[in-house]
Specification:
This is Methionine aminopeptidase. With about 70 residues, this protein is an all-alpha fold. It has one domain (about 5-65). It is built from 2 helices and no strands.
Length: about 70
């Protein structure tokens, strides 16, 4: 197993762990339950006072229904 594979595997496990922790707490994994997403970048611009993952509610159920 090369270094790239290990890094990719670690990132995926980390992502799944964060999602399961947020699910237990009932919070959106993208904004961590705040309803705002302060991570705009040059590829995807969004209103910083609105999380597109949960429609600004901060709820895991809204995030899960929108995930693709």
């Amino acid at each position: 197993m090369n270094l790239w594979s290990k890094w990719t595997e670690w990132r995926e496990k980390s992502k799944q762990k964060r999602i399961s922790e947020m699910e237990q707490q009932g919070k959106c994994p993208d904004c961590r339950g705040r309803g705002i997403h302060l991570m705009p970048n040059e590829y995807y611009y969004t209103d910083p006072l609105y999380c597109p993952g949960c429609d600004g509610s901060g709820q895991y159920s809204d995030w899960a229904s929108r995930s693709y």
